[in-house]
Amino acid sequence: MGLKRTKTDFPGAWNDAKGGGAKVAIVDSGVNRKLASGVYERHPDIGKIADQKDFVEGNAVADDDTGYGGHGTQVTGIAGALTDNGKGVAGACFECKLLIAKVLNGKGNARDSRIIKGINWSVDHHADVVNLSFGGPGESDILRKAVNRASNRGALVVAAAGNEGNTLSPSKRQYPAAYPKVIAVSATNGSDGLASFSSRGDWVDLAAPGTNILSTRKSGDYGKQSGTSFSAPFVSGLAGLLASQGMSADAIRQRMQGTAKDLGAAGDDPRFGHGRINADRAVN
Question: Has 192 been annotated as catalytic?
């Protein structure tokens, strides 16, 4: 996915932490490809899946039936693709164990009830980090309470800030990202500016690369995509590295924010939050 070119300095961080012992949950559209024969296969560059659950179809195999390359498959690759295996891309937290909860249907939609089940299942399976690469403008009290429960049980919840930057309301709050106990992630472009599509506002906490991100596709190959959906798993992967060092969720948040590269207006600002993550500085 271009971890070297994204200025996030993950290769440097891997000298000190690779994620072993940590669990990152990807609550999304699944990760497996279902063949015409009914057999499921997984991208050869995605491994270390500790457990999975399909809350859309109600079974134990989280197949990804979203369009293009598969939304959940691409998010998963950014957070945890295998590394040094002679294939494709490197995942931010490649020794983290992955928990895959399918809550989005083939159109990328989900009811709050499914999302809540996915979050609860992830925490019940001891997720250190929960990645939510989706959102919308509607605030939900029951979803906020689910996020708070996850936080109270020690999980760090990370969410995409949204892609409303090209609309008339780029600062309209997006949920679950805007809940106080969630780390909201905006997207940077190749020049370390704010991506044109990225939502922004005083609820944004951190920024990460989000344009032309190369990652795994459900078809077994690789492709590029843009969006804050693909920024959030960079942050979740870094959080997984820090969790593997024994840090608590609160300490991880503080470390990522305190070591981020300040962009835009000095200090915490509505476009980049505390800045674009720097993995090497955070882990060392």
Answer: no
- CA distances from residue 126 to 28, 77, 95 in whole angstroms, order as listed: 17, 20, 16
Residue 105's Cα: distance from chain center in Å? 18
274 is known as an active-site residue? no
Q: Given pLDDT bands bounded at 50, 70 and 90, which one contains residue 1?
A: very low
What predicted TM-score, i.e. pTM, was given to this entire model?
0.97
CA 221 to chain centre: 20
Q: How many domains does the chain have?
A: 1
* Cβ-contact 31, 60 below 8 angstroms: no
Sign of CA dihedral 14, 15, 20, 23: negative
Catalytic pick among 133, 199, 215, 229: 229
Q: In which domain, by residue range, is 186 found?
A: 10-283
CB 83 within 8 A of CB 90: yes
- 264 assigned to some structural domain: yes
